[in-house]
Amino acid sequence: MKKIIYLLAVVLLASCSGPKYTASFNSYDSPRGYHKETIVEAPVVVIDPATLVASTSEAPIEIKETEAPVTEVRKTYIQMTKTERKALRNHIRTEIKSTVKEQKAKLAPSSTAATSAMDNDLKLAIIFGAVGIVGLMLGGASNVFFYIGGIALLVGVVFFVKWVIRQ
Predict the structure, then answer these.
(1) 139 CB neighbour count, 10 Å cutoff
(2) Quick one: which of 9, 104, 112, 143 could link to 139 by a disulfide (CB 3.0–4.6 Å)?
C-alpha cells in the first residue's frame, strides 16, 4: 500500500513540474494583440507650474511674470562642519523623542483596569482549549466527545494564534 501511495506522489509531483506548467516570461515584451510597430509614444509636454491658474469666474486670466525662483542651497551631511553635524543630530534626536512621546500618549490606556483585563481572544482560546482537552479525555477513539473535543481544541488554537499575532 505504501508503494502505491509513494508512486502516486511521485507521479503527481512529476506531472506538476512539467514544462507545460512552468512560468514563461518571454511574452512580456509584446503582449497579445499589440506589436512594437503600433505603439506610438506621445511627446512629453513640460508646463511651468507657476503659469497654471484655476478660476471659476469667466473673467480673463492675466498671467504675471514672476522672478526666477530662488534655489535653496542645502548642504549634505558630509559637507557640514563638525558643529553643524552635532546640532543636526541633536535636532533629529529631539524630534524623534517628541514623536515617540506623542505615540505613547495615544496608545496609553485610560485606566489601570484596562491593562489588567484579559483580552477577549485570549479568553476564548482558554475556554475552547479547556473544552477541547476535556472532550478528548471523555471521548474514546470513536466517541462523539472525541470529535467535539478535537474541533474545540483547533478553534482554541486559532484564537490563541490571533492573540499572539496582536501582541
Answers:
(1) 16
(2) 143
Q: What is the DSSP string of 42-89?
A: PPP----GGG----SS-SPPPPPP-PPPPPPP---TTTS-HHHHHHHH
Place of cell 518571454: 26
What's the alpha-carbon Rg for the chain, to the nearest Å?
A: 34
pTM assigned to the model = 0.33
> What contacts 115, CB < 8 A, 6 or more positions away?
109
Which residue stretches of the chain are H helix?
Answer: 2-16, 82-107, 112-116, 120-138, 144-166
Question: Three-state SS for 136?
Answer: helix
10-residue block means of pLDDT along the chain (167 residues)?
74 62 55 56 71 73 64 74 90 93 80 66 91 85 83 92 88
Residue for grid cell 542651497: 73
CA distance linking residue 109 with residue 113, whole number of Å: 9
Cβ partners under 8 Å of residue 47, min gap 6: none
